[in-house]
Design a protein that fits this description.
- By secondary structure, this protein is largely without helices or strands.
- The chain has a single domain, classed as Herpes Virus-1, CATH 3.30.40.
- Helix content is 11%, strand content 9%.
- It contains 2 helices and 3 strands; from the N terminus they run E-E-H-E-H.
- The protein has a 3-stranded antiparallel β-sheet with strand order 2-1-3.
- The longest helix is centred in the middle third of the chain and has 6 residues.
- It is globular and about 40 Å long.
């Protein structure tokens, strides 16, 4: 089951279930569209992968499968994967 995190891990912006700003990597690290574009340059600081728009869980399913209750907030001081991967297509990293 996809974990739906409620905030951007870098800037702590709220990202509710129906947010069009939520982006995730293959490990479900969650960042807002602004941080993915302007800070991370589409390179996940945790795994080096790229990001895709997070899907929205149907509202009727939120009672049974709620969003993650706690917030994940780890502001990015350094993205060790950025320089090595920012010019490589995420599907070829």
């Amino acid at each position: 089951m996809l974990e739906i995190r409620q905030n951007c891990e870098n800037c702590n912006k709220d990202l509710p279930n129906d947010s069009n700003e939520a982006m995730i990597c293959t490990y479900e690290c969650t960042f807002c569209k602004d941080c993915v574009t302007n800070v991370l340059e589409n390179v996940c600081p945790n795994c080096g992968g790229g990001f895709e728009k997070r899907p929205t869980r149907p509202h009727k399913q939120l009672d049974k499968f709620p969003m993650r209750a706690d917030r994940v907030f780890k502001p990015i001081a350094h993205n060790e994967f950025l320089e090595a991967n920012k010019n490589i297509d995420p599907r070829k990293r």
